[in-house]
Amino acid sequence: MFFFLPVGLDQQTVRRLPWVTFTLMAACAAVFIALSFSVSAIEKRAAEKRIETVTYWAHHPYLAFPEKLLPADASKAQRDQIKLITEATKSNQAARSEDLARIERAQAELDRLADAALAVAAEHPFRRWGLIPAAPSALAFLTCLFVHAGWLHLLGNLLMLYLSGPFVEDAFGRPIFLTLYLAGGVLASLVQLSATPNSTTPIVGASGAIAAVMGAFLVRFARRKVRFFYFLWLLFLPPLRGTFTVTAVLVLPLWLVQQFVLASSGSAGVAYWAHVGGFVFGFMVALAIKLLGVEERFVNPRIERKISLTQHPGLERGMELIGRGEAAGARNVFRTVLASEPQNVDARLALWQSLVNTGEAQAGAVHMARVVESELRRGEFALALAHWRELAAATDSGGPPGLRWRLAAAVEQMDWSATVEILRNLADDAGAGVLAQKASRKLATLGVGYKPPAPAVTGSAAGKPVPASMPEPPAAVQAQSAVVRPAVEAGAELPDIEVRRVEGFQADSLMLSGADGGTELLPFSQIEAIVVGGIKGARPYLLLDLLLRRAGAERGKVVRLASTAFDPRVVMKSSGKSPLEAFRDLVRGISERAGVPVVPAAILREGGRFLTFETKEEYERALLAPLA
């Protein structure tokens, strides 16, 4: 026995609560529950009436069987067989004229029973609210989307909508998403109706509309990875189970091909043509949205305006009190703001800073932890990391253990060294319990040797002991600012290299992490050239070196950005692209704004290959030294 089931995605962050998706899911579930009370009773009555009619005909086979009881897709052989039985028995009975009156009365009774059976069948919710191809109604094109044939049918559709709907709704906005869903469902039903125009079997279920959402998901989130659960059990062997991931651009087209093959083969019981039609419709709509730039021009600005907080008037009042040295009054004002707006990040940050300034950071730790939690939910991982470091530096711990564990998982793909830093902080915390043990095991899986630090201290800060420093992570993935003097061949003159982390762009500057943990601006006018190369190593990564202009005999200087220290998709705001393509966009963006060349220039071409080297020193000798 073998089966697999989609259970999640590798990235599940959205900007707003996808309440349209959740409302559609709730409506489908509510309709199913409401109808389930009457379905079984009506099905039982309809079966009894049909059996009564067929039984009466079986005792009077010379009567004409009511063809209206036959399904519209009944074969010619089935119809001919019934007619043959009727004609064979009628010829014997009708020979006696004295039986004609009785035959007419019996035929009338059979017709009455057939009409009664059809009347009960017409009361079935699937026929009242589903779409019947042979007799369609305008309202049924909408109502059929909320009716499901059973628990498995319902749960399967809700799972697929849950996996794709929130992200398409977040990307396209609620009005476009709802229109896509409903229009996709209607068009999917039209495709199924055109394929089976004479069918009397009702079309029910939201799968056509959900297929439209899946088609749009393929265009917008082609690089997202879908996580599947699998279960394999062979005879005499223990069962195997686990998960694996497949990129959406691979799995969704395969699903579409499967639906097309099943539809073409004439498989009954499932509206496969509706799946095909809905998917193609959603794909085309999303493609048009992408080509016309609807998301960038209309959707994103509108969403950003809605989710941006208007500053509470109390914030300004609190800052005025701080400026006058009235810290206690300012805190009361900030607490009043939080009472009315618990999610106001600015008020929590102000309250935290006020407590830190007076040496009461521990009392404000709960506020900074809430800030980090909020930033994690919004996908602002770099900002969450910066605030967590501020929290950890000013207090005895780094906040709640669960928060630290989630933060480490969130930044793992963006900043390897930060992940190690957070996990070490968590592993050192005796009060973290099970999560401290999990952090230690995670460090081992990352290839980082870890031992709990000795209780010795090397200094103090703010009157509190500071543990002895722990080993640094490998140099290839250090994220902190540092001056590095590479060991290269004699005679190969290299500039000083400052390792930084890129935060984003401004109109005329590049935003970088500062040496003191803040943010610094590097004007594009200071950049003279850009050098890019790949380092194989144990964990392959890319280096982006910005050569800065020199004045006179001043020693050359390089700002180095390593791909292990940040997620280029976050910087470039291109979650739909691969990290490699987002990194290429970052290089191209710096080059265009600074008006300087890139070495090698071939990497700017779509699909251009990055030059790779066995070691960082080889890269520096081959590409960096000639320009220095």
Structural overview:
By secondary structure, the chain is of the alpha+beta class. Helices cover 54% and strands 13% of the residues. The protein is built from 22 helices and 15 strands. It has helices at residues 19-59, 76-93, 100-122, 125-129, 140-143, 151-172, 174-195, 207-220, 248-264, 272-292, 294-307, 313-323, 327-340, 345-357, 361-377, 381-394, 401-411, 416-427, 434-445, 568-572, 579-594, 616-627; strands spanning 2-9, 225-232, 240-247, 457-461, 464-467, 483-484, 496-500, 502-505, 509-513, 519-523, 527-535, 541-548, 557-562, 598-599, 612-613. Strands 6, 7, 11, 12, 13, 14 and 15 form a seven-stranded mixed β-sheet that branches. A three-stranded antiparallel β-sheet has the order 1-2-3. Strands 8-9-10 form a three-stranded antiparallel β-sheet, with no helix packed on it. Helix 15 (361-377) packs antiparallel against helix 16 (381-394). The two termini are 63 Å apart.
Low-confidence stretches: 94-98, 452-491
The percent range for helix content is 40-55%
* SS strand fraction: 5-15%
CATH topology of the largest domain: Rhomboid-like fold
Identify the CATH homologous superfamily of the largest domain.
Answer: Rhomboid-like
Domain count, please report it.
3
